[in-house]
Structure formats: structure tokens, C-alpha cells
Amino acid sequence: MQKVIACIDGSSISDAVCDAAAWAANTLDTPLMLLHTVEKPDLSESDLSGTIGVDAHDALLTELAELDAKRNKLAVEHGKAILAAAKQRAKDDGAKFVDTLQRHGDVLDALEEKSADIRLIVMGRNGNSGSISNHLGSHAERAARVRSEPILLTVGEFSAPRNFMLAYDGRDTSVKALKRIAESPLLQGLPCHIVTVGEDNISNQAKLADASQFMQKFGFEVTAELIPGNIFNVLKTYKKDNDIELLVMGAYGHSAVRAFFVGSNTTRMISSSEIPLLIIK
User: Fold this and answer.
1) 170 and 138 fall within a common domain
2) Could you say which DSSP state residue 244 is in?
3) 55-86 per-position pLDDT tens digit
4) 251 — alpha (psi -120 to 50), left (phi > 0) or beta?
5) Model confidence pLDDT, tens digit, residues 82-122
6) Could you tell me if 92 and 189 lie in one domain?
7) Among 70, 90, 115, 166, which residue's Cβ finds the most Cβ atoms within 10 Å?
């Protein structure tokens, strides 16, 4: 059975990741897996500088290896404690079925290992200063680029969203993304804001109307807006003016919107957004 997989690193954002993951697992009626990875540092001889004898060189390497083994053991034990606390928080949030998993290495490698089991990935970003979180947030953009599963990226404290906004350009890939959102129970019942950024012409009006009607058929209350201007600025302003609580992002083919979502502006949005992001391929 596919699961919601939450990436936990013990940083200040981990509680929000737990809360978001528990909400998603409950809404999707699916099990939750909490994942913690221990990233082992490389032990390189190049770190030893200066001219020393062979015996001293070997002794230093042995001592460094022993210290590294101790650090690794402590990291594993610390990770287990992090997972235990996260599991308890997820249960307190109402998650019914919660498993934990600890792996060595890069978090994206661990996610690749569990690909067949993933329905949704939940990761965190430090929201206090707009910077990327120390361990997992640095992988957020790369995960958004390489993973095919939806990714829910939390920012600061998490509360269940009461509405969401998505950008729409009317191309085939955006229609598929819209369909995926509509058919998922994750956002069912939430007011939906569909924003098309572009010229106010008949073509864009028709595309926006089609998207609005499609979502309404699935029971969504829809507010649709066609707004000219810079994509990043338009979405940021609309989000603020309409108290949007969740931004849905997607890869929409070879278009200006796609350039915004998977180009250099992806990092800009991830690092600057003050609300959770749901990234859909």
C-alpha cells in the first residue's frame, strides 16, 4: 500500500512536517511513514595536511575512523530518538498507522529506494528567516525536480489549509495536473483559486473558464482570475490579497509557467513563500 512519507531531520521544522504529514495521511486515508537519514561524512586522506611519517599518518587515520564510527553511532541513536518523538506527535495529530524508517546516506536515495511505496512526500523548509532548512530543506528543490510524486513542502508552523491557489496556463500538461488535483481527496472541499497569468484575451479567458468548470464538476467552489503581469509578482500579490493558505505548483510543459515552476524561480518561490507548497508533476 502506498504511503505518505515524511522526511524528518530533527530541526525546528520537523514538528510542522509531522503535523502536515499527519493531516495528509488522515485526509488521504493512507498510512504514514516517517523517514530519517543519517548522512555519513566522507573520511578523506586529503584532510591530513603537513609532512608526517607513515606510522603517524596511519595512526591518525585509525583515530579518525574510530571517531567517525562513534559519531555515526551517536547520530543513529539520535535519529531513533527523533523518529520516536515524531511518531508520537503524528499519533497525537490523529495519524492512525505510523511507521518509522532510518537509512544511511542521502535522503533522495532513500526516497528512491521507497519509490513504489510513495503517494505523497512531505518535506520542510525553515520559515523563520526565509532560508532553507539545515538538512532537508537543502534537498527540497532537487526533490521537486527529480521526484515524480507530489511533494508537500511545509513552512513554519502547519495548520490544515482552508483554501488553495493554483496557476493554470491551459496546456495539456496543466490540464493533467488539474485533473490529478481534482481526483485526489487531499484538497476536496477546499475553496479553489485558479489564477491564469497572461494577456486578457479570448483564448486565455476560454482556458480559464474550462478549468473553472472542470473543478466545479468535482464539487470545488472556484474563484477564477486572469491577471496580466510577471508570474512571480502576480501570484505573490494574489496570495497575499486573498489570504491563500496553500499554493499548488506544477510542471506545465514548455511554457512561461513551466519556466517559473522548474527554472530558477523555483528556488525563489521555495525560499520566499510564507505558506505551504504542494508541488505536482
Assistant:
1) no
2) -
3) 666 677 776 767 776 777 787 788 899 999 99
4) beta
5) 999 999 999 999 999 999 999 988 899 999 999 999 999 99
6) no
7) 90
